[in-house]
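Input chain follows. Return structure tokens only.
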Amino acid sequence: MTGDSTRDRRLDRLRARLSEQVALKDVPVTLPRAGRTYSILTPTDHDRLLDEAETDPEQNLPYWAEIWPSGIALGDVALARAAALAGHTVLELGSGLGITAAAALEAGAELLAADYSAVSLALCRHNALRNAGREPRTMEINWRAPTDELLAHADAIRGYPRILAADVLYETRDIAPLLALTERLLAPDGVLWLAEPGREAAQRFLAAATALGWGRESEAHDGPWTEGTNVRVGVHFLRRPGS
């Protein structure tokens, strides 16, 4: 009972802080393969978030504020492959609203969730705690200019055995930085789990990784997704050359 009370108070504090920054609503999200339904706190005023992005020096649009099929699919994979995550220090690049994070924590991962947006990270903490009973560690990063803290943490554990990324490739300018950062942070025998819905930037990322000798296995996920979105998500398991 004490644990539930402490969690509820923490959730109330997180939600109150978030409500000061953005309008919110609760949305049920079902992981179709696992049959697990999460209640996800999500922003409602996307126009305001777009207006705020105009002053961002990186011009990063608030992609994180949407519920994307890729995050749901990767959450399904996390639960299906829990043995590959349980007890391991795992990095998620681009935490979004925390759907994948909640599943990874349920699977037993020790998760570090990283995102460019502080609001995204706060929502990730809230939604993970609400649905998985645990919060991830979080870190605000720009993967085009990764912080010393992120690099040092990877070095201390000799690289992450798993890096998770769902629908993070919208723009071609991110292909080279993301590939370089993954190579820098991934353990020698580690695996990048990348979920993507067929965007051109993601296909070019996969082609670039293949050209550099990265190995890849893939599987397809067809939903059904929240709000009836009709898209096939590819989930790819990429290993660095020679591993």
